[in-house]
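[Q] Does anyone have a clean structure-token version of this?
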Amino acid sequence: MLRYFLIGMAIYIGYRFLFEFLLPMIKTTRQVKKQFDAVREQQEAFFKQQNNQQQQKKPEKSATRSGDDDYIEFEEIK
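[A] Here you go.
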């Protein structure tokens, strides 16, 4: 009789562990991973968009020269 009781308790504890702890933790982990992936994809799309805009705004060197050969480009040193 005690043997059946212990087997029943082990099955009950295993059931509760599986369905109240392990499965919810797996579901939560998957959900958090999906959210992180979505945020990462949004950031990548944003950076690609920024790079495309910078490349479009960046004028070509030949277009910036006004034909004046006396102009020398320099960087200001502070």
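[Q] Thanks! Anything notable?
[A] The CA atoms of residues 61 and 67 lie 11 Å apart.
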